[in-house]
Design a protein that fits this description.
This protein is an all-beta fold. About 0% of the residues lie in helices and about 50% in strands. The strands form 5 sheets. A 4-stranded antiparallel beta sheet has the order 1-2-3-4, with no helix packed on it. The chain starts with about 20 loop residues before the first strand and ends with a strand.
Length: about 260
């Protein structure tokens, strides 16, 4: 239950750190990590920045797409393509970042600090509705490039993460409103993929403001940030946390780092 960390890479851009907005995914087939973030060009215009890091050599390949979008990026790999989900657009790159600009399609929503996971060609976009419906979860069909309503949670949700185990979507952490330092207590969600009106809640005894969620078999690893604020809502501390939820035993264990 102990985890040890050592430095791997250093980034020169301050925009990699933005309260859970940056996206990251691993590609085991070519032993690489992909990172995407909103950045800015020399004239101050917003761009989408994608980095591919070879884990063996630490060599970095970079692609800049001159597109203005909201800050949050969520990543998925489908075959030889890297798909970057943003607040307004879905951008598809070659996995080796070759060629010109990515194929870009509007998904028709305005999202920020949303979560994302994928199953059977459908990406589940969790919360983050900036102008309306922050409680919504949408599905984006990767093949048809169409978005649909999946379900609605009992309350709005920002900065939460989710993953799917045995045909259930599990969602952990987050905050009720955008920019609010108060997390959604210790409540987590279990939603049936086959019957999305079937929504269960349970507790994990840890309130986490910003979460990143990934599964391994029946285990769900939850990494995140716990934000402490003063009476005026000013952030005074941001502390990391990592835990594991066992979907068979329905237990949550915080890991020591």
């Amino acid at each position: 239950l102990d985890l040890e960390f050592s430095p791997a890479l250093t980034f020169e851009s301050q925009f990699v750190y933005s309260l859970g907005a940056t996206g990251m995914i691993a590609s085991p087939t070519d032993n690489s990590l992909f990172i995407s973030t909103r950045d800015f060009n020399t004239s101050g215009g917003a761009v989408e920045r994608v980095l591919k890091i070879n884990v063996d050599t630490n060599n970095i390949t970079e692609q800049i797409f001159e597109q203005s979008d909201y800050v949050t990026k969520r990543l998925h790999i489908e075959g030889n393509e890297l798909i970057v989900f943003g607040g307004q657009y879905v951008n598809t790159y070659n996995l080796d970042l070759s060629g010109g600009d990515p194929t870009s399609v509007s998904h028709g929503k305005t999202l920020t600090r949303f979560g994302m996971t994928e199953l059977d060609g459908n990406a589940y976009l969790i919360g983050g509705g900036l102008n309306e419906f922050p409680e919504k979860i949408y599905t984006w069909n990767i093949e048809t490039e169409t978005i649909s309503d999946f379900t609605s949670l009992f309350q709005g949700l920002f900065q939460a993460g989710g993953t799917i185990v045995d045909d259930y979507l599990y969602v952990f952490g987050g905050t009720l409103t955008f920019g609010d330092p108060v997390p959604v207590s210790t409540t987590a969600y279990k939603i049936s993929i086959n019957d999305p009106s079937n929504i269960e809640t349970f507790q994990i005894n840890k309130a986490i403001d910003v979460t990143f969620v990934e599964r391994f078999d029946n285990l769900i690893y939850i990494a995140g940030q716990i934000i402490t604020a003063d009476a005026d809502g000013i952030t005074t501390a941001i502390n990391p946390t990592i835990g594991v939820y066992d979907t068979y035993e329905n237990t949550y264990q915080e890991l020591t780092t």
